[in-house]
Amino acid sequence: MMRQRSLLIDLLKIIGSQLIVLHHLVLYSPMAKIIETQLPDLVNFLFFYARLPVWSFLVIGGFLCAHLVDRRTSFRWAHSIFKRCLRLLPLYFFSIFSVVIITIVWYPFIKDEPWVSPVPSLLSLFSHLLLLQDVIGEPAISAGAWYVSIDLQLFSLTLALIYLSRFFYKNIQIEMVACCIFLGALASLQIWSKEDRFEIYAFYFFNAYGLGLLAYLAKKSRLNFYFFLVLIFAHAIDVFIENSFKNTVILVTALTVYLAGNVYDIKIRIARLVESASNTSHALFVSHFCVIIIFTGIWNLYELDGFVIAGTMFFSAWVAATLNAYVLNSFYLRMTSLMSKSRGGNL
Predict the structure, then answer these.
(1) pLDDT in tens, 115-133
(2) Residue 78: CB partners within 8 Å, gap ≥ 6?
């Protein structure tokens, strides 16, 4: 049995999600301060560079969005966005409520941590549920909240663009879509991504997402390939001039997904494990923050100290976050499968 999956993309998702968890453990957990005294180079690497895979996720997200739309014979904009919401929001909502509950229970033991948000107000909670927390200036409850909002913005923006191009330009739809994506991504690269005040909006990240879209569309026509090539060249210039690690990650990821093979045999056991770990990356991204809060509370409650104990707690938190994400994702898949069967497979 063969499925349309890329081994390289799956591996990028796995490695990227794990690095982001490690980055947040270094950024937030009290154990990291003790580990830094013995392993400063490792901690500095995780602090400064392990957050960069977020840009890799954005490129991959664009590539997979283009693949998703391309393989459909019919296109319904609202229905596609609704299905995307069903994929992203249940685990996100569960994670937000988990963080709130754990913060309330653990607050006496984590209140002195500068990164811990106080028990959220109703305004803060509802703004997170509506994915508007950054727009209205509410402090983030969870570390992964912003990404879910941006992902949905980028997905909706792309589908709206494709929908309009199919409606108005039926004969040249692929090239017209690619041209619009190219212009939007180039504007994002040269203008919007240079201004931090835009980072709560999709167009700040469209240089990465758009490059992922074009990495897929480049194989559809020669003109699309030229759009992709010029945008690659523009990113390369930006890397050279500004020595931008962010755009280096974007550039390398785009070239990787463009050159990646489309299929691998999932009958091989190791490939099944890779597929499962890749599918768990979203659950890991949105749920690991509550695990960090729990382990921080345990550390403070028992007034733990020492390099060995810190390393053990740090590693345990990492493993616990991974296992928690696997359980959550398995439960989510089970529930969606049951709902799909109960509705005749139409979900």
Answers:
(1) 888 888 889 999 999 999 9
(2) none
